[in-house]
Amino acid sequence: MYKWSPKPNTFRLKTDPSGCGDRWYDLACENNRTVLNLYSGKYQVEEINYQNYSIRVVDPGLKKGDCLSTSLYHLTSENFSYGDPYEWPYYWKFRTTVLMSCSKQINENNKFIPIIPCNSSINGGNSSSSSQSYHYALTGDGDSLQVGDLPGSCTIGKSIFSQMGADSEPEIRSMSDLQDQILLGIKLSFLQIPCIRECKVKGENCYMDYNVNSVKCGDPDSCKDWLDCVPIWVRGLVIILGVIFYSICTPIIGGIIVRALLGAVLCIVIYKLRLRHISKHDDTAKDIP
Fold it and tell me: Contact at 8 Å (CB) between 45 and 10?
C-alpha cells in the first residue's frame, strides 16, 4: 500500500510560471482576494488545510449585515463527479438553510428564525406586494431538517449550504447567528486528482479514507482474504443451490428460508458491485497526467 501526502505547493495562481504548483489547482487574485473559479462560479477562498486536504470557500454574495444576503451561485454535491479536482465527500456534514416567506407569523416554534432578506423577495419575485409577508429561515443537517416542519402558510425560497460548525457551538437562534454559520462556507476535498495520478502510475486503484485523512493505493487484483478471490457469481450460485437443496428436504421451513436467503444474496451482490464500481477508475482518469 502507498500513502500519498500533498505537496505544500499544490495550489498556484494563474499568473505563476508553468512550473509552479499543479495546473489542476489554479487560483486567481481579484481585488486582493484569493478566488476559486468552479463550475461557472467564483468563490472566495477562506482557508486551505493540508492536514485534512480541504479548501474552504464562501459564495461572494453572502455578507454580514442588517439583512440576510443570499448566495450568487448554487453549489451542491450534484455538481461534482469522479475525476474533478475537488470533491464534496458525502460523509462530511453540511448544514442546509431553507429560506421561506409566510403569510402568517410563526410564534410557537423557535426552530423558525425570523430574518430580514436583503432582496425584495426570497422567492424569486413570486411574493405579492399587496399582502404582508413574514420571512423565516429553517436550518439543520440532513437528519434534523424535515420538509414536514414547514407550515402550510409558508412558501419555500432559496436554500443555502454551509459546513457544520463544531458540536460545542451554541444553537442558532437569531439572524446574526445564522449569518455567522453561513459565512463558514463550503469545505471541499482536493484528494481525488492526486490519488488517481499517484495510483495510476503503479497500476493500482486509489482509496480515499476521510476518517484518517489519507490516500492509499492498492492492487485491484489482490485479495484481502480467500473469499474475495472467489468470483461473486460463484458464491451466489453456491448459496442458491444450497438453499434449493435444503428446501426440497424440508418444504415448509425451506420455503421461508429460500425467500430470506435470496433477499440476502441480492443485497450482498448489490453491495459488492457497488464497492467494485467505487474502487475502479472512471474513464476520466485516463485524461489525468
Answer: no
